[in-house]
Amino acid sequence: MLRKALLAASALLIPVLSFANGYVGEWYTVNEETNKKESLVTIWQEGDQLKGKIVEILDPASRDAVCEKCKGDKKNQKIEGMTFLWGMKKEGSEYDNGNVLDPKSGRVYSGSMKLIDGGQKLELRGYLGFSLLGRTSVWVKAD
Q1: Cα 38 to Cα 29, 30, 31, 54, 57, distances in angstroms
Q2: Which of 9, 20, 33, 126 could form a disulfide with 109 if both were Cys (CB 3.0 to 4.6 A apart)?
Q3: Do the domain assignments include residue 63?
Q4: Contact call for residues 66 and 73 (beta carbons, < 8 A)
């Protein structure tokens, strides 16, 4: 009886531990020029890495957009619902050595992430080769 109770308690604890990671959850991407929210992204943990998917494009006119410039299995895939972030592995308090797909250009960049503003914002850096040669975007935690 005690064994069953311990197994049930541990099964309940595993999802709680995975959500203890401040990166996991929903985030709004923000246009750097207009400062408007563009999409809702969800980040989840799978094994030892983080992945991200575009859950919703906020502009109704863009919801049916496809990734025309993407290669491989992402070519002509609908952007809304697409996994565009993968392979992010924990390094200290940050995540690094991942991949970020830019659906507008079809390019895949190396990526790193870190939480800022007490975990209310996420800084995503996409780069080619060296981290210094890239672009950073800041996402806002969804409530």
Answers
A1: 6, 6, 6, 10, 6
A2: 126
A3: yes
A4: no
- Which CATH number covers residue 120? 2.40.128.520
In which domain, by residue range, is 75 found? 23-141
pLDDT digits (tens, 9 = 90+) for 89-123: 999 999 999 999 999 999 999 999 999 999 999 99
What is the count of structural domains for the chain? Answer: 1
For residue 28, being part of any structural domain is answered with yes
- Name beta bridge partners: 135: 126
Q: Model's pTM, two decimal places?
A: 0.82
Which residue's structure tokens are 């609908």?
A: 78
Whether 15 is covered by a domain: the verdict is: no
pLDDT tens-place string over residues 38-63 = 999 999 999 999 999 999 999 999 99
**Residue 45: both structure tokens together:** 């943990």
The residue type of 83 is T
Name the residue with tokens 């895939």: 77
